[in-house]
Amino acid sequence: AMLHALYQQSLKYDADFFIEYFAIDLIMTGEGADRRCVGVIAMCLDDGTIHRFRAHAVVLATGGYGRCYYTATSAHTCTGDGGGMVLRAGLPLQDMEFVQFHPTGIYGAGVLITEGARGEGGYLTNSEGERFMERYAPSAKDLASRDVVSRSMALEMREGRGVGADKDHIYLHLDHIDPKVLAERLPGITESGKIFAGVDLTREPLPVTPTVHYNMGGIPTNYHGEVVTLGPDGNPDHVVPGLYAAGEAGCVSVHGANRLGSNSLIDLVVFGRAIGHRLAETMKPGAKHDALPADSADLALTRLDHFRHAKGSLPTARIREDMQKTMQKHAAVFRDTETLAAGRKHLAEVNASMQDIHVSDRSLIWNSDLIETLELDNLMAQASVTMTSADNRKESRGAHAHEDFPERDDANWMKHTVTWFDGWGGGAKGAGRGEMKIDYRPVHEYTLTDDIEYIKPKKRVY
Fold first, then answer.
1. I want to staple 169 with a disulfide (CB 3.0 to 4.6 A). Which of 10, 57, 107, 409 is the partner?
2. Residue of 35, 67, 88, 146 with catalytic role
3. What band does 83 get if pLDDT is binned at 50, 70 and 90?
4. What is the pTM of this model?
């Protein structure tokens, strides 16, 4: 309903939509404190033409990067293209170590089963038929927060109480609920069970496993939606003129280290609207565009040509699977120093293998092989930043559970991680070597008004 209403309003104001265009890179001008965004380079998939969009403002609403993991609830198009473009523009991403796992993704498919299923009386059991959440969260039980339920499931599987031949999933029971109630209050769930798991939910349990669901990290912004970075003078809130981000692509950090259910929708609406208001305040109708630098399209065209003519031995799908399995194994629900160090090493090798990538289709018209390769390049950069940021944070906070540092450490780690990544194409010639730099931004602990008293962080207990 919201999408329909927003789309209708956009038609009312005669907005132009460029359907089936793929954004390749941002157009940036200036140096240091004067660096600004003045447009975007995009490719039309219908005819293969390359377009340079000049703009007084670019708003990135490109979604998260969930597909850098092997199992995710997000669409296959959630490849974090906005984050990839921002990194190549020499800007950092923030809090990438915080990745939320939803406890109930259908095993083998990743399709989301809403928390409403447990809200209506559904419960989880292990291979022994035990309702194990009563041990981990005696009060909330199956209604505990997502990270708590996901970790509890992971522990059950790790200790050999998972179900199935490989003990790698858990059962979600809805078979005790009246089928009429399921149809009325959880429409579509019964059908999803049949299609994606071959299970009749009214008669048997559904196999589920913790699945990547949301990225708390992303492009750092302020409450106007303006992209910020560490300025040359050390200002942690230096605004990058002309560049905005909203939704899962952005990181205002209203979610902190662990988003609560449904809050992402509020985030979308509030900060999407805030960007609209900010643009109305700052943009002047009829204002002239600044002259573009002669090399404004060089990076985009260099990357496009490099991948289009890539003649290595490894298909895109092979490298993507290696990356996804590395992330799933080394940067999942539970993390430790040894696992993360091994993950960084292996992921660096996977990234380097991008130099040996093979793209079979050389055309420009509807070349899905080429587009998937460009998407993989965006994913690889963000996967690398996520793994490095996770290894760097020596504490447990929100969705980041570090077994060697199980407690939250506010004295040393109450701060945002900002990470830069230099390179693309696995370190292709002239592309940078994939080196990373980490710095920090302070957490805004107080609201803009005095209406609400400061709430000190405290440990959640169920």
1. 107
2. 146
3. very high
4. 0.91
